[in-house]
Amino acid sequence: DHSEAVAEGEVELGAGRHEGCIMRGVVLVNRVPGNFHISAHSKSHSFQHGMLNMSHAVDSMSFGKMLSPAQQRLLPGEVAQGWNVLSKTQHIATGKNTTMEHYLKVVHTTYLIGSARGKNLETYQYTVNNNNYEDGESLPAAVFSYDVSPMQVVVQEERESFAAFLTQLCAIIGGVFTVTGLLDGLVYHGHD
What we know:
alpha+beta; four-stranded mixed beta sheet; two-stranded antiparallel ribbon; 4 helices; 6 strands; 30% strand
């Protein structure tokens, strides 16, 4: 019935591969656990549960103030990886009436740049776990649940002292000497 209605132009939306909505925005939240849902609701339209597809692509999702490209380049690799985890990800609904959930664990992160005071990057890192389930009773949705950790990670790069360098160098030389001595003893006693 649906394909005939599409062919005859009796439905509002076609069966095109790229139909849907583009959403962009900012959500201001407190530092407490919460969630937000993206779903279809209307007072003047009714929806067929099995016909709604909540597949979605996330272009960018971050917490805290937006960082400029120059600030993003300053972040160390491990911090940059956790800053925008959902960036450029696609989430495809495999069944009918599938709700897609994303569980985000958010941690406040401060990156101390060099020894200059006041030149810190304040950002948030997060991890994400995804879950899908089919529900025949209600309309499908994309659900983003977040939990902001009460702890903070402080990342600071420090240069090692010359004494620490010498200690590590001596440890490496001592380890090589010990392993060489063990191998020499094993070969000598094995030959005897």
